[in-house]
Amino acid sequence: MKIYFSCSLTGGRRDEAVYGAIVDHLLEAGHAVLTAHLARPEVMALEQVVDPAEVYRRDIDWIEECDVLVAEVSTPSHGVGYEIAYALGRGKPVLCCARQEARVSKMILGNDSPGLIVSRYDGRVQALQLVDSFLGRSGSV
Q: Which of 27, 31, 87, 128 is within CB 3.0–4.6 Å of 92 for a Cys-Cys bond?
């Protein structure tokens, strides 16, 4: 399965360890994670040299190509919100997962799109379980 993983970059990297755990888990399960680099500590240096128009076109192309989008939404991010809305508009299943105590936008919490699942986790293990459950509903674990 082709997965677009979405997470905060410029909004903050507090949850980088969870980002990495999710991406590693998906890769170990044999999935193609089109945006695996976003979960890595060096992503900020890598992305600084890429033109904004190039980032936009590249990411839109990846969303078009993916089967599902998995977003970690504990840290607010304009880009993540845009990616979620774009994927939903294209009929892609979307999982938004967040730490139990995180303040998540009401635009996400109140969205009743049939392809959207919003779930809370308490720790890395539970985050991975949410991802597996979502992928099972979306056709592949």
A: 87
